[in-house]
Design goal:
alpha/beta; Rossmann fold; 3 domains; 5-stranded mixed sheet; 48% helix; binds nicotinamide-adenine-dinucleotide; binds magnesium ion
């Protein structure tokens, strides 16, 4: 029987890597591809849908529906557009779904995919930051299996194979440190989006690359680890490891540490989730440890990267503080990309909005609905944009 799959965000960096691994494994011959979704790159979305003989192709942008229809003409592939159409496509039952839309926009499709009870390969860490308790409860209720795709969390998941939860002492997330690892604060204040996008080790989408430079990506990952592995805030550490060879580590109560090593290639973590629980051959470079010669580590600087401190504050708050934090971060990134605020202003904005709305957002504990998440996300973005306007006006 052919495996039924869908890929949400198939035109992105994770999405394209996923498509390529699926093609390596026989593509449409061995997979029944239900839905592929994208945003503005209609040509790529249509080409992927034709190649994998998808049933449905959806763009998030309603103004591009005609373009998508034209690109799919004669293929028999259904075209649709808009966030609701993506959510509908995610409700189509599959055995394996890749959640790789960027930002909070990935939450609803991820939840819908979980409701069909198959495997959800989760690249969209924002889902867990915004609504971790809801996401886990949805998976549990529908019998869905959640597999992390973020390289750090895939590494931790693999290091925990066969281990008992009560043996975990700490989780150590590695961080490359990004392009500004050794830059002084004054120089960081002046960086441009193009400089922030140039990640030293990983080839990723624009937004996550800039989040890596500010370490907001690591902040999201700290919260993601807290949700996924049920480890409290004070037992999650970050260590800067410039080579990005160790993808993360787990420290156990007997003093042992298990580390996961591999090349900086997301096809490792995607392929692991695709083939789980089996390890199949993957087209990755093999590590040459003698050629690498050394692996370096140093502490992360909380002064230049306040996002790390904010992540711990958000975990201490709990409830829906993560939804506020993530939305404020997305608004800050929009402001930085538009040239309205500087690189270091992003964390000032996020701190301001999280202080403003965080306590109220936290008060619900784990008793909240999807509507509560979306409302707080909306309010945090409004507050973030208002902060940017006062900045621009000043
Ligand atoms: P990307 O920007 O390259 O791709 C994002 C995808 O989402 C594209 O298909 C785009 O068309 C779609 N999209 C964008 N806005 C949308 C919207 N509003 N509604 C619906 N679809 C929309 O991003 P990426 O780097 O592939 O990252 C995707 C997710 O995976 C993010 O959550 C990111 O944090 C996570 N992740 C990425 C990497 C990586 O190496 N790229 C590693 C770990 C985790
Ligand atoms: Mg990561």
């Amino acid at each position: 029987m052919r495996r039924r799959i869908s890929i949400f965000g198939s035109t992105g960096s994770i999405g394209q890597n996923t498509v390529s691994l699926i093609e390596d494994q026989g593509g449409a011959e061995t997979h029944e591809v239900v839905a592929l979704t994208g945003a503005r790159n209609i040509r790529l979305l249509a080409a992927q849908a034709r190649k994998l003989r998808a049933r449905i192709a959806v763009t998030s942008d309603p103004t591009r529906l005609a373009e998508l229809r034209a690109a799919l003409e004669g293929s028999g592939i259904e075209a649709a557009a808009g966030p609701a159409a993506i959510a509908d496509a995610a409700s189509e039952p599959v055995d394996w779904a890749m959640s790789a839309i960027v930002g909070a926009a990935g939450l609803v499709p991820g939840l819908r995919a979980a409701e069909s009870g198959g495997i959800v390969a989760l690249a969209n860490k924002e889902s867990l930051v915004c609504a971790g308790a809801l996401f886990l409860a949805t998976c549990a209720r529908h019998g869905a299996t959640l597999l992390p795709v973020d390289s750090e969390h895939s590494a931790i998941f693999q290091a925990l194979n066969g281990e008992r939860h009560d043996a975990i002492e700490r989780i150590i997330l590695t961080a490359s440190g990004g392009p500004f690892r050794d830059w002084p604060r004054e120089a960081m204040a002046r960086v441009t989006p193009a400089q922030a996008m140039a990640h030293p080790n990983w080839d990723m989408g624009q937004r996550i690359s800039i989040d890596s430079a500010s370490m907001f990506n690591k902040a999201l990952e700290i919260i993601e680890a807290h949700v996924l592995f049920g480890v409290p805030s004070e037992r999650i550490e970050v260590v800067v490891h410039p080579q990005s060879i160790i993808h993360s580590l787990v420290g156990f109560r007997d003093g042992s540490i298990m580390a996961h090593l591999g090349p900086s290639d997301m096809r490792g973590a995607i392929g692991y989730a695709l083939n789980w629980p089996v390890r199949e051959p993957l087209p990755l470079d093999r590590l040459d440890l003698a050629a690498l010669a050394r692996l370096d580590f140093c502490a992360a600087d909380p002064e230049r990267f306040p996002a790390l401190r904010l992540a711990h504050e958000v975990m201490e708050l709990g409830g829906l503080a993560g939804a506020v934090f993530n939305a404020a971060k997305e608004a800050a990134l929009d402001g930085f990309l538009a040239g309205a605020i500087g690189f270091l202003d992003m964390s000032v904005l996020v701190e301001h909005v999280t202080r403003d709305l965080g306590r109220e957002a936290a008060s619900c504990g784990s008793e909240y609905s999807l509507a509560d998440v979306l409302e707080l996300d909306r309010r945090a973005r409004v507050a973030g944009r208002a902060w940017i306007e006062t900045c621009v006006g000043a």
